[in-house]
Amino acid sequence: MEASVISKTQGCKHNNIAEFLDWAHQHRLHAKDVLPASEVILCEYAAEFRGKLAGASVKAKLSAIKGWTIMKGYTWQGGDCLRKVLTGVERSAPPSSFRPEREPVKKSHLSILHAELDLSDTNGLDCCIAAAADLMFYSQLRAGEILPTNSSFSQYNTKFMPKISDLSKTNAAGLKRLFLPRTKTSQMRGDKVMVPVQKGSTNPIHSLDNHICVNKLRPSDPLFAYTDTKGIKRILTRTLFLRRCNTIWGRHNISRRTGHCF
Hints:
By secondary structure, the chain is mainly α. The protein folds into 2 domains: about 5-95, no CATH class; about 105-260, Intergrase catalytic core (hpI Integrase, Chain A, Orthogonal Bundle). The chain is built from 11 helices and 4 strands. It has helices at about 5, 15-25, 30-35, 40-45, 55-70, 80-90, 105-115, 125-140, 145, 205-215, 240-250; strands spanning about 175-180, 190-195, 225, 235. The strands form 2 sheets. Strands 1-2 form a two-stranded antiparallel ribbon. The protein has a two-stranded antiparallel ribbon with strand order 3-4. The protein is elongated and about 70 Å long. It starts with a helix and ends in a 12-residue tail after the last helix. Mean pLDDT is about 90; it is low at about 1-15.
């Protein structure tokens, strides 16, 4: 393969593209065969992973190559034949390529959180954590849809993460609606989710209202911002949220939960 194609990809963060170029080099393909790659070549590459990887993993590799091809100004050649090959790869995926099912978070786990978190008006962090846990559980959200990885206000992107004004007021039925700027399935279109009223201490309506009041949040603030013990406003991150929850649950012999478990 010509050096020009390889050099244009050096330093690229996407390992999937480098892997594809290595495969092409091993099969003695020329630059014109790779960029753009014909559907025959794409099918041959996808078929290499039959019985080795899960279908989703192979689709991710092809998606990276597609993005790279289009970015370079070429037309993507994948079509029905490639889709059929990917279906075959998915059906032949080895058992080792699948993760074991995650243990779910249960209502009893929320009750334990509420019993052990300090939900007084002096602990903004714990009030924030309780509200996030209740919302994720009852509205069936992933942690990544409402909690960022960075606690910095300057890094918080409201195009991706919700702010206070994205949460509606409680309506006549006692419900709220939350607009999510981006979800795993809707991506940039966003989506609206229902926040249902519940009986007992884990009612997400009450938890959210209490969190907003205790932390004195404004409409433009991140939905899960809080005031720390020094009076500084911070943003609740996925890491901090899950660490606090799992520390409490661990004392009750509950195995570790991830953000998807909600």
